[in-house]
Amino acid sequence: MNKLLTVRSLKKYFPVYGGLFSRVIGQVKAVDDVSFNIHEGEILGLVGESGCGKTTVGRMSLRLTQPTSGVVNFEKANIFKLSKKELDKLRPKMQIIFQDPYSSLNPRFTVEQIIGEALSVHFHINGKELRARVESLMEKVGLSSMYLNRYAHEFSGGQRQRIGIARALALGPRYIVCDEPVSALDVSIQAQIINLLQTLQQEENLSMLFISHDLNVVKHLSQRTAVMYLGKIVELASTEQIANNSAHPYTQALLASKPSLDPKYRIRPQPLSGDVPSPLNPPSGCHFHPRCPKVMDRCKTEVPRQIQLEKNHQVLCHLYDE
Amino acid sequence: MPLLQVEDLSTFFHTEENTVKSLRNIDLTIHKGETLALVGESGCGKSVTALSVMGLIPTPPGKFESGRILFRGQDLLKASESEMQSIRGNEISMIFQEPMTSLNPIFTIGDQIMEAIHLHQNKTKFQARELALNALRQVAIPSPENRIDQYPHELSGGMKQRVMIAMAIASQPSLLIADEPTTALDVTIQAQILDLLDQLRQKIEMSILLITHNLGIVAQYADRVAVMYAGKIVELASVEELFASPLHPYTLGLLNSLPKDGTKLETIPGVVPHPAYLPKGCAFHPRCAEKVDQCTKMIPPLKPINSKSLHQTACWLYETSPTV
């Protein structure tokens, strides 16, 4: 499989202003040295709790957010080095689906305008041809083309998410960032959207970065899974390995805190103590050490390095560093 | 006698355009020390049930069309405002979904917990502070002596939810209504909060009405489960029975639509109907794969599946089985 997207030592530090003259008094290391690849036709799941930097990684991989440093190669071009013109040419190939279907659609646009806007901007398609393209896109995502002239507020959450998906598909992308696309939806609607994403991904051989806090959804969809904690990817492996053979204590805790669906199986593992620390003032050494059940002395001072456990299984933990 | 008994409760909201039928003839009981989970999708009436019990439905536009809410035998719908005030926050407490917006930002958390104590118990300032500290200790907040004088913005989401719980249990209520207590929190924090609620339930013998849409939480923490759809309870059973042999097609659909392994998910087609424009007969029939003629005409009653069982469902498919 060919690598479609490579991310190398991506960093994003947000300055914190304060004091008398609003000077920079600190940095939030939202994303701190993140590297991964996405192959053609592959879904990479990105899991983590709120504030761990998942969304920032997704946005930087599309150059919607400028990184502090690092490289993102898309089809071998470093997207941060491209001129505006070159980037415009690449834009149709990379798209995003947002979390909140209520705020990510323009309330003054009809469905036709929402889905068709990018087509007329990038490919100069207008009039009848545009309408035909929009209609076929709507059909593809399971919306009746009768709704062409309706506004976003007339739709339910699930239908709005379908509009968002149609908009992302309009330009025939190769790579889509799905930023928590189902977490705002009800369970029965979630399943419909997950199935739709899966079908579309297989039909068009799309590559996806699937960002979610829901391990079940990621496990269901993705081939490989990356687990983030406070700006770092602490474990990256095939979804199977993450589910059955996870190495990092944080991944293990995440898996254990997921409630089981069997009421007869009520043995509850000790939940993680403590809160997610503030990224403004992360703990020294390994950021996870104050909550880690297997903490050792060196975890408190030394930042762990990346360990290759097997082929395709990386972990950031002193436990595996001999 | 059950602690709380909701009988034939209907709560409607009258607006200029239409009438939103949020609850339609609900029957519920909660016994001492048990956790009853109320499950359903957004808009099915879970929160309206909670607010009706708390007497927090604004009337108008809300109106109780029928029914009684008996708490220790007293009808809460007939209680005066002052009677309600002595029950609310004292005998029945509630924790809300969003800890971020449910705390007052301009008071310290100590002030807010003590306010609840002063309202219901005749205590000096010093005693109230001791009780507040105790409540914070019970919800496992580290160094409560420092935390008690902090403002909500100084706490994380999980901490704020603990403060909400501390406030709710400060008066040792006999019924705690938890409306999606962990939906706004991270998974690792979710387990902490739910375990805490469960421990407190055992310690002070309170009953919990747990409102959630997460079936995993239901499986792990509930004793009995009521599944709601479009303002009606469609299935009521013990948690073991519900997960082992779900009866109502909606319950089945919900359980099947959860991601399991790589196979394609089963889905419930269509969407939840608008509570002001419900379909005739069983509200689920337009989405139901097993509907029969009767479903489009008459609303099925919630009935036990046989005379011995406590497993109840509101579905015409099971009407042929021997009933009481």
Describe this structure in words.
With 322 residues, chain A is of the alpha/beta class. Chain A folds into two domains: 3-229, Rossmann fold (3-Layer(aba) Sandwich); 230-260 and 271-322, no CATH class. Helix content of chain A is 29%, strand content 26%. An eight-stranded mixed beta sheet of chain A has the order 6-7-8-3-9-10-12-11, sandwiched between helices. In chain A, strands 2-1-4-5 form a four-stranded antiparallel beta sheet. The longest helix of chain A is centred in the middle third of the chain and has 18 residues, at 187-204. Chain A starts with a strand and ends in a 6-residue tail after the last strand. The model of chain A has no long low-confidence stretch (mean pLDDT 89). In chain B, helix 4 crosses helix 5 (125-138), helix 4 runs parallel beside helix 7 (157-169) and helix 5 (125-138) packs across helix 7 (157-169). Chain B starts with a strand and ends in an 11-residue tail after the last strand. At the A-B interface, helix 6, helix 7 and helix 9 of A face helix 7, helix 8, helix 9, helix 10 and helix 11 of B.
Topology:
The complex is a heterodimer of chains A (322) and B (324).
Chain A: E1 3-18, E2 23-39, E3 43-47, H1 54-60, E4 69-74, E5 77-78, H2 84-90, E6 94-97, H3 111-123, H4 127-140, H5 157-169, E7 175-179, H6 187-204, E8 207-212, H7 215-221, E9 224-229, E10 232-238, H8 239-245, H9 249-256, E11 306-310, E12 313-316
Parallel strand pairs in A: 3-8, 3-9, 6-7, 7-8
Antiparallel strand pairs in A: 1-2, 1-4, 4-5, 9-10, 10-12, 11-12
Helix pairs in contact in A: 3-4, 3-5, 4-5, 5-6
Chain B: E1 4-14, E2 19-30, E3 35-39, H1 46-54, E4 62-71, E5 74-75, H2 81-87, E6 92-95, H3 99-102, H4 109-120, H5 125-138, H6 144-147, H7 157-169, E7 175-179, H8 187-204, E8 207-212, H9 215-221, E9 224-229, E10 232-238, H10 239-244, H11 249-256, E11 303-304, E12 312-313
Parallel strand pairs in B: 3-8, 3-9, 6-7, 7-8
Antiparallel strand pairs in B: 1-2, 1-4, 4-5, 9-10, 10-12, 11-12
Helix pairs in contact in B: 4-5, 4-7, 5-7, 7-8
